[in-house]
Amino acid sequence: MKQKNYYFRCIADDCIHYWKIIVLSVAACAIISGVLGYRKIGKVNHLAAREQEAVDAYNEQLAAYDKQIEEAQCNIDITLGEIENIQKYVDEAFYMKLDAVNLQAATAQYAVTGAQDTGGVLNSMVNYLAYGNVQECLEAEFGSLEAGYIRELLSWSVNGNILNITVLHYDKGQGRKILETVQKGIVGHVPEIKKIYGEFSLRRLESTFYTKKDNDVTNVQNGKLDALKNYNISLADYQSRLASNKRSKAEYIESSQPEVMEASASGKILVIKYAILGMIAGCVIPLAVLSLRYLLSDRIRSEKELIHTDMPVFSCKSQKEGRAFDTVTGIMELKFLAKKYCAEGFYLNLLSENEAAIKTVNEITKALKENGISVASGAVSSKDSLERMIEKKYAVMVVKAGENTYPQLAGQIRTCRKFGIPVWGCIVI
Amino acid sequence: MEVLVEKYKRFVRDSCNGEVLFFGGFILYIFWKMIRTTMFPYSETVFQTCLILSVVLLAGKIFLFDSYTVKMFMAVAAMLACGLLIAMASGYLWPFIWVLMIAAAKDVPFGKILRVHLLIGAVVVGLAFCASLLGVIENLAYPATDGRGIRYSFGCIYTTDFAAHLFFMLLTAYYLYHKKMRWFHYIGTCVIAGVIYYYCNAKLDTICILLLAAVFGIYHIMRWQREREQIQTSDMEVGNMQLILFKRTKACLTLKKLLGRLAFISLSVISLAMYLLTSAYREENKFLEAVNLAISGRLMLGKKGLKQFGLSLFGKNVPMEGMGGSLKHTKPYFFIDCSYLFILLRYGILFLGIVCIAYGIICYKRREDTALMLTILLLAVSSAIDQHLLEEAYNPLGYALFAGMGEMSDRKAYIFGGGNQAGDLGKAYGFKEDGGKGERKKKKG
Asked: What pLDDT sits at residue B425?
């Protein structure tokens, strides 16, 4: 396996090593979860008559709250719509901008003569003003948005055979312009009236422009503003009612919700689901614990990691990778070191009694023996091994990545230091 | 009694036990915090007990094993004091615990902390995922407001919480293993992003995950190109020597510096930008409204929060009602999904400043670590759209403030101890006297 996978390999090794605990954990978690699942079914399997009554009453009350909330919301929506409309009118309508004590009035008078049915002719003109055709003229001149509001400024009256048209405005020039537009419309409509009522003559009498005061305007304006105010008050009232209903519902749910709300549908399936989750947890938790142990322990994870601590490391790759041992870099370096210090041999201090470590050590020993360098090896845990190490005078540590820890390595180095044995470095397996 | 005292003295003498205490408290705390982000039932009493135990272990590590310079001590003490003042002002103890955990991580290898965090996250979220699919715990299914089907939370309390867990786990994994990433890892990350978008409809988290893959992918390509730098010679000569240009290496080094500087200011700049955008937000402003819609109404909610609660030095009690934990919600929705505004409103201006400074110091101390700079940049961006910057169950990067720079420094101390063993070894092997980092020199003859 490549060096970078030592992490997972060591965790996998631990998992294999502790397989019994993992199996026990899976079984235990599955059983505990199964029991929890069974208890959950047991709680809700059947509802007693009293429980059912309580649930029904609870649901009824909730439904009542929901209805009140819905009604309040509906009222709020309607009120908001009304407020929007009135507010728009108040903001945009020309009538609302009129100054009741300084109204600019523009008046035109027309006399109808020579008609067979003067009343009919005058009614037609009034209808023209009241029911729509004049709208086209106003729209053409002022645009559709303003035309709608201009209609309110227009008023008319009939006295005998005289038609009076009045336009109120806050701006004299605009009032005049509107009046002229209406007059054009009236004149343009005359041929249509003649087709029905026969020939007649429409004589324009004087147009007058003056300022007037009209309390009715104030009354109408105040009426609209009062309506807006009332709607706003209603809105606030509905909103507080809605909030109060929601609060009451939340409090009711918190205080009165029955413990058991409904009977469970499928008991066995729930137990199986809980058991499956238990098995998953039973696998995951030990794996997590082993991973945590690996992460938190001070294990030497790789050769590279040890190199970063400035510890000399001799790279001795195993025969599995197809290289003869005597050509491996680490072996050569050890040979050169032995020659440099004129050492007959050195001691390989095994920190791990792992099979792979022992095998590698044996192969290194063999390779070095062929070059006349005697190598002793063993774990320095007994008096004999310590004696052999002292005899050899030089030591090289052999650590198993993923198994041996930094404290272990440090302990061995301290032992060597105590007996004055120089440590040349480490071999990582 | 004497035996206990002796054991205690032996325990305190061994510096490794500090790490044991830290990880004991850390694992306990993180485990429960993560459980609380899932639909697994838990006992509040047990959680409180484990919380107290964690605090005791972490405090024990700080008092028994950590040593500080005067400056560091003042800084840590000030941060803890700020945490306590926030607890008194707003009732939230989490800032204090966050500071405690970060202080307790002093000299603990940062890589180790991240690996443990990743492992616990993978286990908890993985189990929650399996449990939700089996129906053992509820797999909350929310209808998407834009009519794009159902959003599943896969055992977490909300869909975006599940997506955030995946994002932060991927972020941690990318930082730890960025040198070992291959093309299929990046493809896999994009697939995960697609799955999250399809099943959870977590648009912004999906973008963050794709950004993560893209950013690290580009960095990977740059590193790979630098490693394969062809020697480019120009016609220019200096003295009698031809000038050699390493264009890609130069570009890589320039990028490294730039990333370091960007990461240094990222949190401060983005937090300020979010605050300004939020406070300036008006529905009538088309640009801000477009930004607001793009980030799912976060500006609007942030503005509401600012208006309602305002700013304070040590924070206020800001009750929030989210969509998580249940499908039934009767209270109106109000949740600040931006970490910066979340911290600003709940923990105050001072604490937000502390957090920005802390991450700035991390970026300054570890400016050589380009991968960390990229990670913090991505964190800063994602914190604008989620509230997990200070949540230990999601974000483990804060520990880098005091954590050990590498895993090797304590190992060297272990092996070589206080004596000049390194020198002895060096002599034996022909190393430099100072146990130098240069290449090995083989002595001839």
From this structure: 45
| DSSP label at residue B38 | B
Nearest-CA distance B219 → chain A (Å) = 22
Query: How many Cα neighbours within 13 Å face the side chain of A370?
Result: 11
C-alpha distances out from residue B13 to A121, B10, B18, Å: 116, 5, 10
Give which of A285, A44, A277 is closest to B39, Cα–Cα. A277
Cβ B209 vs Cβ B189: under 8 Å = yes
Residues of A in contact with B23 (CB under 8 A): 296
Nearest-CA residue of chain B relative to A304?
B408
Whether B330 contacts chain A with CB within 8 A: yes
CA distances from B123 to A317, B24, B120, B390, B397 (A): 36, 17, 5, 21, 19
Tell me how many degrees the CA angle B16-A402-B432 measures, rounded to the nearest 5: 70
C-beta atoms of A340 and B443 within 8 A: yes
Asked if B23 is an interface residue toward chain A (Cβ–Cβ < 8 A), one would say yes
Do the chains contact at B330 and A253, CB–CB below 8 Å? yes
Q: List the single best residue of A255, A277, A412 to mutate versus B (max B Cβ within 10 A).
A: A277
Q: Which residues of A are less than 8 Å from B110 in CB distance? A: none
Q: How far is CA A58 from CA A71, A254, A255, B63, B150, in A?
A: 20, 12, 11, 55, 29
Please name every residue paired with A189 in a beta bridge, in sequence order, or none if there are none: none
Cα–Cα distances in angstroms (integers) from residue A143 to residues A23, A188, B58, B319, in the given order: 84, 19, 75, 51
CA dihedral B159, B162, B163, B167 (to 10 degrees): 160
Whole-model pTM: value is 0.68
- Lowest-confidence region among A138-152, A327-341, B173-187, B411-425: B411-425
Task: For chain A, say whether B135 makes contact (Cβ under 8 Å).
Answer: yes
| Phi, psi (deg, nearest 5) at residue A170 | -90, -15
- The percentage of chain B sitting over the pLDDT mark of 90, rounded to a whole number, equals 60
Please tell me if residue A252 touches chain B, with a CB cutoff of 8 Å.
no
List the single residue in B with minimal CA-CA distance to A284. Answer: B123
- Each residue's pLDDT, cut to its tens digit, for chain A (429 residues) gives 333 344 666 677 778 888 888 999 999 999 999 988 888 776 655 666 777 778 888 888 888 988 998 899 999 999 999 999 999 999 989 999 999 898 999 999 999 988 888 889 999 888 888 886 788 888 888 888 788 888 888 899 999 889 999 999 988 898 999 999 999 888 888 898 899 888 889 888 888 888 988 888 999 999 999 999 999 999 999 999 998 888 888 888 877 777 666 655 566 788 889 999 999 999 999 999 988 888 887 778 778 778 877 788 888 765 455 555 555 788 888 888 888 888 888 888 888 877 878 888 888 888 888 877 888 888 866 778 888 888 888 889 988 887 788 878 888 888 888 888 888 888 888
Distance from CA of A137 to the nearest CA of B (A): 35
| Cβ separation A410–B415 shorter than 8 A | yes
Cβ contact B134–A249 (<8 Å): no
Looking at residues B16-30, what average pLDDT do you find? 91
Q: Which residues are CB-neighbours of B320 under 8 A, at least 6 positions away? A: B334, B335, B336
SS (H, E, C) A72-137: HHHHHHHHHHHHHHHHHHHHHCHHHHCCCCCEEEEEEEEEEECCCCHHHHHHHHHHHHHCCHHHHH
**pLDDT computed for residue A80 by the predictor:** 92
Question: Which residues of chain A are within 8 Å of residue B135 when distances are taken between CB atoms?
Answer: 270, 273
Cβ-based contacts of B131 with chain A (< 8 Å): 277
Distance in Å, alpha carbon of B387 to nearest chain A alpha carbon: 26
Q: Three-state SS for B107? A: coil
Alpha carbon of A410: minimum distance to chain B alpha carbons (Å): 5
Q: Which of B123, B330, B424 sits opposite A250 (nearest CB)?
A: B330
